[in-house]
Design brief:
heterodimer, A: about 70 residues, alpha+beta, elongated, B: about 140 residues, Beta-Lactamase, 5-stranded antiparallel sheet, 5 strands, about 30% helix, globular
Chain lengths: ~70, ~140
């Protein structure tokens, strides 16, 4: 049996809404600040922004970004 | 400090050439500095004293984990910071957001390796009217 026309419309709208929500979620994740340290043996560490080391790394990075200035 | 095994002696001119090469290679680069084994700035785009102080702070904080860090990658809303130690030297670079990290580290490592080996860097600037060899890495933005 063919679905009722309004069902088709609702499915389509909710499909677009799902796509948009997924896009926003991905965008939010990719825009989140991060601090990663890599060591000689291949070990890597991720430091959260609210950790002590992470906070200091972000402050140091901020100063370097300030020194570098804007791209000419 | 850039590297414990720092035995490389690099002239300021060679470092300046390497920095110019790195800047030409990386379209996303805003600024960078190359540091010697003792933490002194060999070449920098801008205020060398501030680059030395801020790079030393970054590497000191990164080294607090116990072992010396080899690579640092920090992404913020304002831009991204890369630091790399190689062959007794260190390079620190600041790029726009979403720069390709692996390529940036590759370029930095290549520059430091060549610098440590005493290999001069050719300039990529094309002759007038010629085609630029500069890579376009603006993936998904305004690239082709």
């Amino acid at each position: 049996m063919a679905p009722k026309p309004h069902r088709v419309l609702l499915d389509r709208v909710s499909g677009y809404a799902d796509e948009a929500a997924a896009y926003m979620r991905r965008r939010r994740v990719s825009r989140r600040p991060f601090a990663r340290l890599y060591y000689a043996g291949g070990k890597a560490e991720d430091h959260a922004t609210d950790s002590a080391t992470g906070g200091e790394l972000f402050v140091a990075a901020g100063k370097l970004i300030e020194v570098a200035g804007k791209k000419s | 400090m850039p590297d414990d095994a720092a035995t490389t002696t690099v002239s300021g001119d060679a470092a300046e050439g390497a920095l110019a090469y790195l800047t030409e290679m990386s379209p996303d680069l805003r600024g960078a500095a190359i540091l010697g084994g003792d933490g002194a700035v060999l070449a920098a785009s801008g205020d060398a004293t501030r680059w030395r102080e801020d790079a030393a702070t970054l590497l000191d904080v990164a080294d607090r984990g116990g072992e010396p860090v080899e690579q640092v990658h920090i992404g913020t809303e304002q831009g991204e910071v890369f630091a790399l130690r190689h062959a007794g030297l260190a390079a620190v670079a600041v790029t726009d957001r979403f720069a390709l990290a692996s390529l940036t580290f590759f370029d930095m490592r290549a520059v430091l390796r060549d610098l440590a080996n005493g290999k001069p860097h050719p300039t990529l600037t094309p002759p007038e009217g010629g085609k630029s060899r500069k890579r376009n890495r603006k993936v998904g933005r305004d690239g082709p």
